[in-house]
Every structure is written in structure tokens, then in C-alpha cells.
Amino acid sequence: MRRWTKPIKKTNLAPAVVVEKRWPVSTVAEAMQVSGSNLHDRLNGKARKRGRYKMREDRELAADISRLVDVRPTYGYSRIAGLLNKGRRGRGLLPVNHKRVFRIMAINGWLLTKYTVRPQRRIHDGRVIVMHSNLRRRSDAFELTCWNQDKVRVVFVIDAFDREIIGRDADGLRGVSGDMVRNLMLQAVEKRFGTLKTPSLLEFLTDNGSCYTAKETRDFVAALGLKPCFTPVRSPQSNGMAESFVKTFKRDCTLRSIPCRMQQRCYSHSAGGSKITMKTALIAGSNGNLPETSSRLKSETRQTVRRNGGNSRWLKKP
Asked: Terminus of the chain with fewer CB atoms < 10 Å: N or C?
């Protein structure tokens, strides 16, 4: 078995070629693409050892950095440079580049040890399925871009057992706020139970969005008889049912995926002198009042998808 050997650098190989005296120095330097002056110095034993350069004020700076490192041993070079420059400005001196601080700390071994331990991936061994309805609810929000570049933000609540969309809301002027989430949860509780509070404790699973983690939202959800639960950071699998619904909705149900002829029909249709756009259709649909054109458009889309074997990838984007 052949062992791996470290390759020889051109700058070290070129002097050995010149020593054989078969070609002049200029020819070897040109052929091997190395510096002629460097090659000449190596042949005469004047080659300079490469290493970190030093400046005149490095000793004074090293003493100041040493005092800061003793006081703040957990600080890296960036914070040490900030403290050092703060003190220098107070004494009327010019600030020091943070790269210079890094070089001095590296020479003296004052840098922090690099964190090389990789965090372990979260094991998803929890129980996602529930045995009957009204045990756990999931919520999520997403954004849709219309063909006219309008933005629509949608928020919804889905039951973890029967996967019914109990409540939904949309807004085309601002993002999803805590007021939207609180109104949505009140709407979902009234629709399912007909009261302002659930008869038993229900789990309310969401991500860590600010509209869900706000104190007003958590207190309001608890007053409705719900237990707020949040997924771990960078773990969308924990709310996979809601994420799957968002993916399906964007793929099959948005007007952006409808053929151009249907889009023109929806966009240019005039109902009472006003245009029906995707934004108005979605916002009106969140309240249960779809315009006539949007309802007919959804029906035509379903029929077309059925004729194509249930595959929606044929839908062309504008």
C-alpha cells in the first residue's frame, strides 16, 4: 500500500533544479512560474523565513491587552479590541484595528478555544397523533405573493385529529399580529363548542412567532381553556401537520398556480364596477364570503385537476 506523502512546493523544488546547472535561473523561474528574486535568494542562502510580522508598538499593546484578558478571560478578540479602543480614546490615542489585536492575542496564546462540538439533532420521539378531536390544535401563518406582486398574510387553526380548518384569517396590509391570533382562537372556540371557553383543557401548538409568544396572546389563550405549547427552535417537524397544510395550500389552492386564461378571467372580471383580485378573494374567503368569480374559479380548477389525474404540476405560472 502506497503511503501518502506531502507534495513539494515549487519554491523548494526550483533551487534543486538550478543546482544541476542545466538551465539558467531565469529559464527555471519562467518555466516553473516562481519569483526570480526569491529563487536567487534561496540559492545564496538569504531566504527569509515567513512568519507573523511585528510592529514597534506591539509590546505596549500586548501589556494593555494582557491586563484586559486577566479581567475579562471569557472575552474574545472583538470585545477585547472594543475595550482597548475605548481606553485609548479616553487617553487621546488612536484606535487599533481589531485584526492587529487578533494577531497579538494569537501570538501570545490569549485567544479563546474554538467551539468544535456539534450540537446533537433533536430526536422526534414524541407522540403526534391524538385519539379523537378536541385534544390538540395547531396553528401557523404563511405569506402568499399574488401575480400582481401583492402580499397576503394568512393565519389558520387546524384540529390535530380530523384536520378540519376551524378558523382562518387573512390580511393584505400588515403582517400577522397578536390581535389576529386572539380573534382567531376565540372564533375557533365559539365555532366548535358554542361557548367562550372549552369544556376541558386543550393543547394549542404553534411555532415561536412573536404573535404566538406575546404575553397577551398566552394569557388570552389560557383564559379560553387552552394550553399554549411551542415547538423547539429550528424544529418545524414538531408542527408538521400545519406545515404540510401550508405546502398543500400553496401548491394546489392558490390563484398563483392557476393558468393564465383563468387568471385573466378573475383579474379582469368586473363585479359592480370593481375588479376582483387575488388579494380581495383571499381576504373575503377568510371570512367565508368568496366572490362569485373566485368560487367559480376554484370549481373550474378542481375539474381541470381531476381531468389531469389529480396532478397540479401542469398548472402554468404567469
From this structure: N
